Each structure stands twice: as structure tokens, then as C-alpha cells.
Amino acid sequence: MNADSALFKQFLVYFGTHTGIKSKGIYVSRFDTASGELSAPTLAAESVNPAYLAIEPNHRFLFAVNETDHFNGQASGSVTAFRLDALTGKLEFLNQQPSGGTSPCHISVDCAGKYVLVANYNSGSVAVFPVQANGFIGPPTSVIQHHGSGVNQQAMPRAHYIAMDAANSRVFACDLGLDKVMIYLLNETNGELVPNEIPWIELKPGSGPRHMAFGPDGRHVYVINELDSTLTAFTSNPEHGALNEIQTVSTLPEDFHGKNTCAEVAVHPSGRFVYGSNRGDDSIVVFAVDAPSGRLDFVERQPTRGKIPRCFAIDPTGQYLIAANQDSDNIVVFRINAQTGRLTWTGQTVELGEPMCVAFVPMEPAKP
After folding, report:
1. Domain segments of the chain: what residues?
2. 3 state DSSP class of 39
3. Average pLDDT of the residues of the chain
4. 3-362 has which fold?
5. How far apart are CA 315 and CA 338, in angstroms?
């Protein structure tokens, strides 16, 4: 998302879903940051299990992973490209490619809009796809299969996240099964991924790193660990891409008993706060960031007014957080206190079948 997006007041909000009886694909709402009003979602495009979405930097195209294990007779999921109408919110299907592995669960676009990056969960692989000028995606230019085993119940390669850093220089991929963050370099000429000088960072055995988020200064990185319900803070070394762990904190209250898995993590646009979602405790945990060190101080946990918050996103102006509760089929809007980072439910909840992802796009004003 461009920094200029923060200047807008009207946004389209796209929701990826798990399709079936309750959902047919990707949905869109309109969101007004002046009033905090979120419209009821409408179908933007039919698509099978569009579990995660990515927006091209200039907001012309939307890309989705289709979280399946079969595509056109192949043992593979797929990646779909759409042309995005920032006035109406409608999505026009462009094309699809096999994802290079099974059950793709995460997708991102590099800062130049030239490549789409995909993490395939079940096969434990990552892939790169070139983006043509018209928004069509080409066949993969690179597919890398992870190898090894961890100690948790997913003790095999399970790629769960892939994205470039803010400098658009290195690619980071969380592998939940290996308890590692893999680090790659992307050849911008041919789209090939190659291991970084330091090829991976190991996390605590059994932690299950799922997603990561970069602070706006590029110096601090936060990884949310699905299986042991923790959040790990790192400093980033721009010279060789290494991540140096500085702190790991629990996302749960001390008296919590039961099953919980973490899901999403996000840094506030100001860089002052970090947010993470708990599935089980069904809450968003809030931490304040100590600017010099990047260390985290607990602020609060806010119930998400639903079950299993698989995803949430902060609007580009930093005023609101929208949470998608997968198992209760609802989307909830919270206001963010700019001074403390605390969340307050706005009273708004809209219904949508199995929401899985939230993505903001600045809404173009109607032409006179």
C-alpha cells in the first residue's frame, strides 16, 4: 500500500473467504474513515477459496491465492489475477496460474509491482510469478521446495508467509513446520529466488512462525508464532539480512486455559504499536513499541466479538482496525486510540461467510 493511501478518507475493503454454502468468492465493502462506517459486503468476483489477497502498489490489480490442492488436474493450488475498478469495487478476472504447490495460503506483491510471491502451505514450497503490464500473471519464474523437519505437530515444511522487506531487497518466508524464517534474494531481471547469504533464522522449536510484519523504519521485525502463542521481536541487519532476536512475549493472559493458535500480526503505520490475533482466546493483543530498541510492552487484549479471528488489517490512516472472524461469519470494526494503541469496538459488525483476509484500497472519487 502506497504511503499516499493515508491521504484518502474513502476506502474499498476486500475480503477473501473460504467458499461454500455461505460464500462465493471475494467480497467488497466501502469504508469511510471520517465516520467509521463499513457497508455490507457485496460479491466482487467469484473465486474458489480466495484465502489471501494482495493489492498491486498502484491499486490497478488484485491477486488472490486459491487455497486448494487440485487445479486443472494437477496437484496444485492456483493464483488468480483480477483488474480492480477503484470506483465501483468490481473485479474483472484476468487469468490463473498453478501456484507451484498445494494449499497456497499467503500472497504478496513486491514494491515495484513486478512480481507476485506465494507460499504453499501443504507442500511447503514458495513461488514467484511475473506480473505483466496488463496485470496478467505469467508462469512461475522460481519455485523452491523447503526441506527438513521440526518438532511440532506440523513437523514438515509448511510455508505460511512470503513477502519482501520494505527496501524491496530481500524476501522473507515463514515456515511454520520448520520453525524457521527463510531468507532469499530476488533477481529482479529474471524473477529467480536464491538463498540469502544468511539463508534462514531459527525460532524456538515448536513455536510455529506463521506471519511477520515490518516496522515502518525497516529496523524492527515482528513474527507471530502460531503454535506456542508468542510474538517475537527482531532487529534487522540491512547489510546481510540477518534478524537478531531481542524479545519473545506471550499473546495470552496468564490464566488462559484451553487451545489457542495465533494468526495475524500488523504494525501500526506510526510504528508505535504491534497487534496480533488469538484464535481460541478470540482476541486482538496490543503491544506498545519502544522506538529505540523495538521491544514490546503489553497494552491490552480486546475481544473480537466473534470466533477465530484469522485475519485483521489496519486502515492506511491508522484510525481503525477491521477484524475477520472466520468461524462466526462476521467482520468487526474497532477504533484505534492514536495515543495508547487501545481498541474500542465501534458497534459495527457485518456478516460474511467464513472471512479469511482483509485488504484496503483507496477509493477513487466519482468523476464529474
Report:
1. 3-362
2. coil
3. 95
4. Methylamine Dehydrogenase; Chain H (2.130.10)
5. 13
List CB contacts of 310: < 8 A, sequence separation 6 or more.
263, 264, 277, 279, 324, 325, 326, 355, 356, 357
Closest CA to 241 of 276, 281, 201, 269: 201
Geometric angle at alpha carbon 21, from 20 and 23, rounded to 5°: 65
Instruction: Identify the CA nearest to 349 among candidates 368, 320, 326, 322.
Output: 322
What's the half-sphere exposure (Cβ side, CA atoms, 13 Å) at 143? 14
pLDDT, tens digit, for every residue of 74-91? 999 999 999 999 999 999
Determine contact, residues 183/196, Cβ cutoff 8 Å: yes
CA distance 199 to 197: 6
Q: Are strands 261-267 and 180-186 parallel, antiparallel or unpaired?
A: unpaired
pLDDT, tens only, 298-357: 999 999 999 999 999 999 999 999 999 999 999 999 999 999 999 999 999 999 999 999
53 and 63 Cβ atoms separated by less than 8 Å:
yes
Q: Residue 169: how many CB atoms within 10 A of its CB?
A: 15
